[in-house]
Amino acid sequence: MMDTKEIQEVEQTTGGKKKGGAWKAVVAAVLVAGVAGSTTLSAFNLMTLKTYIAEREKEENPETTEDYVKIAESYEILPTTNISDAYKSGDTSGLSDKEKETLDMAKTAIEDMKIKDDMSDYEKEKAVYDWMTTKLQQDLGALTVIPSTQEDCDNPYGVLKYHNAVCVGYATTFRMFMQMLDIECMVVHNNEKYHSWDVVKLEDDWYITDIYSDAGKGNYAHFNMTDSMFGQEQNWDHDYFPTANSFKYNVAYQNKKTLDSVYDLPKVLRSAMDEKQGIIMIAFKDKVDEEDAQIVGAIATSMDNMLMSGSYKDMPYSLGTYNWVQDPDGNYIYRVVFSEYNTSSTGGQNLSEKQQEKVDKAVQKAMEGLVSTYGGDMGGMNGDTTMEPEAESTETAVEEVVDK
After folding, report:
1. How far is it, in rounded angstroms, from Cα 211 to Cα 133?
2. CA 309, chain centre distance (Å)
3. Global pTM?
4. What is the spatial distance between Cα 323 and Cα 148, in angstroms, rounded to a whole number?
5. Number of Cα atoms under 13 Å in the Cβ half of residue 21
6. Nearest to 319 by CA among 274, 269, 284, 282
7. Angle CA 175–157–182, to nearest 5
């Protein structure tokens, strides 16, 4: 009969492997030892083994919480209610100097957002989203605008002081603003703990907003999404965090287009790009069948190939994401995100036109003599990288689909 002490002895002989799933080797060894010369484990052995497994699984999969969670093993989700509470009460006596500075910066930001008391919660949330996606930039974890800011890029102090953030910084700062404005909000993390975002309550419904993914674009691609939409990108503990299933305050759904025919899709996509919409949802008057869905997919793929080929220098967009989603009535809607919407060649840096020209000239001078993969000397580019298109077959594909 094996007891806990014997299990520990087996751990020692197997190298003490308990973390990262390696403890399963211990379980295997115990099972072999326990059934040697018999066909079953005793009830005592089985109970001991089940307890051991439960403890190891708890180590690997601790109970889900919102705060005090390490993301990517480097950044921690921390509460900011002391700052939001001080904003609402006006009492800053309980704040540290750093927290007081964070609060002052947050107040200035809210003024810059033009948020008024008579605005709806949705209007306030949208104002915060617009400000954060245009004023802040991503910290890719290696180099930052001011290198010393990296240690604060996961909290509102660093985000607001240096305008620089990782996903945790975006999520906790957005939640702080929501709490300051009396809007319910939680920070969510995925099961693998490498990404975080927010879920916000508007009226009686919850919505997913991922500021980090829209930073520098502000195209509303990850603004007020549903679980089914965001579930195509991430996974999380649905039992712990509230369910988001409303389309009411999703910008793309509010502006959706309803087409008579799937063959009207190219025209609508072109119009959306001309208007720099960034994201669009498209419904169809008649129920979409499998054949219609294939035609829609062919149109989107062909247009994306044309745009990515560099054929149109005045249309610097691509169809970054296009997929089907279901609305609350069970109808299928086509969702298209234009991945290059509202971006610039400066990589998020705030350069003047004159500074950017100097950057371009310096780069071009350094690259003189190198031959482009498309042929020709890179030194003669003068900033114009437009190539003659080799996309006749792609254009023909769209024309054939549309002409059917």
Report:
1. 6
2. 26
3. 0.68
4. 40
5. 0
6. 269
7. 25
Asked if residues 220 and 207 have their Cβ atoms less than 8 Å apart, the reply is no
Res 151: pLDDT: 73
- Whose tokens are 């319910």? That residue is 184
Sequence letter at residue 368:
E
Tokens of 328: 């609350």
Joined tokens for residue 166: 């990782």
Task: Give the separation between CA 30 and CA 41, rounded to whole angstroms.
Answer: 10
- Would you state the structure tokens that stand for residue 311, as one six-digit string? 């054929």
Asked if 334 and 281 touch (Cβ cutoff 8 Å), the reply is yes
Mean pLDDT of the region 233-247: 94
- Identify the residue whose tokens are 């957002």: 113
Q: How far is CA 394 from the centre of its chain?
A: 31
What is the rounded distance in angstroms from the CA atom of residue 192 to the CA atom of residue 386? Answer: 41
DSSP alpha helices (H): ranges in 61-166?
Answer: 81-89, 97-112, 121-135, 156-162
- CA nearest 198: which of 65, 325, 103, 66? 66
Tell me the mean pLDDT in the region 361-372: 74
Q: Distance between CA 192 and CA 236 in Å, rounded?
A: 8
